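Entry 14. Ran structure prediction on the chain below.
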Amino acid sequence: MSPLSAVEDAIRDIRPSHLVSLLDPDSMIDTPQGVVPTQHLRLSVNDISEEVDDLVPPGAGHVAELIEFVQGWDQKSPLLVHCWAGISRSTAAAFITLCALNEGYPEDGFAKLVRARGAHAHPNRLMVRHADRLLKRDGRMMAAIEALGPGRACWEGELFAIPLRPGRD
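Output, structure tokens:
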């Protein structure tokens, strides 16, 4: 997970095969050098958890695109996920990715893992709510995120990694 300010360095250092950008429509980036355009998912959404005039909330369609994208990732090289600050949208996407790719693992374990790796993580509740429904998790994803409470307060998160298969990576 990364804030936008660290994306170029992260691409150079970790060489991801896939990139997910979660930025507001006015700030969306072009595909950075080092990433194949077809392996760059660009979701233009604002970091909001409810409808606000003139802003684009993360919708079920956006989350479905994310799930389809990560399920198509071959997992041979890293996946880099970023948003503006690296706090809310990207950490929600990381949590959603873990749940989408590890059907039998408990949601609360993934939520705790995200927080352990990024103390600032405060996953976007609206994204998680949509994913919970799409992945048929019966409220467990939302409960896991709610149980975390707020992350460490900061203006910008730092780059951090999460193992895709806890206990095996």
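The longest helix spans residues 60-72. Will compare against last week's run tomorrow.
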